[in-house]
Protein: Transcription factor bHLH36-like
Amino acid sequence: MEPSHSNTAQSRRSVDRKTVEKNRRMQMKSLYSELTSLLPHHSSREPLTLPDQLDEAANYIKKLQVNVEKKRERKSKLVATANSEKLNSAGSSLVSSSVDVSVPRKLPRIEIQESGSIFHIFLVTSLEHKFMFCEIVRVLTEELGAEITHAGYSIVEDAVFHTLHCKVEECDYGARSQIPERLEKFVNSVN
Structure:
């Protein structure tokens, strides 16, 4: 009787191990497909091997980390600039030493970065000029045919930090080349 009892226990353990292994594989496949869905699509027609895909994911994550760090540094500079402007407008002679002196001190300010067909637009306004963001969105969508992919803002004391990401396909009338000029002209007209 003991041999049959031993065989039953062994077969249960074997089934349990198989079930655990099957569940682990399914979970790994799910995690892998989630990871690949987050990565930019590979341009070549042939599929990458698993190690190549993992290398690509690691490189993409490193690139994102570098970008996040750059954005944090830029944000701290903008906040320091906004704070120093507030101090200067209050008649104080204190100016933060971490402020980048190449950044103009008056608001509103706009910075435009182009990455292929994507534009990253950073607008810093005072609370009384926050209407500018809506006007910039209108100009981009109605006049220049841009597709807004992200829009956001945050308020720090008296400054409003707007971020806008848009996609502009090149067309006959060259809308992409007009964007920086049109937006900077609009922002400078308010100064």
Remarks:
- Residues 92-104 have pLDDT under 50 and may be disordered.
